[in-house]
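User: Need the bound-state model for zinc ion:
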Amino acid sequence: MKPGKGEPSPDICAQCSVAVGPREGRLVAVPDSSFISPLTPRLDGKRLLLVCSPEHAHAMHGAYQRRPFVEEELWDGKLTRALRGMNLDEWPTGVTVEALAQASGLTPEQVERAVQWSLRRWQGLQP
Ligand SMILES: [Zn+2]
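Assistant: Bound-state model below.
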């Protein structure tokens, strides 16, 4: 049955792809260093997934626990978000590590490690 006008269309379970109605599903937070929340920094590194059942919540936890959690990847995401909010025209000679740290909430050491990680990734030295 197609949803009527004004009714939300069902979402899909992240594990089995079954349609999940608005009151049928449950959200599960899984660790994912590639996830940066656009609105809520405390959710950085925690991807929210919709699932249809407790069993599929457990399955998604298992799947994401096998994915490496790379701190530098998380910090790189925080840097990218911070850079989007900065006016780079105000930094004609380049943004300093200290300014990036202040804008992102990271330490200068974390900024440097994230930048090195990103550079190695761009050079194809790591996946
Ligand atoms: Zn499911």
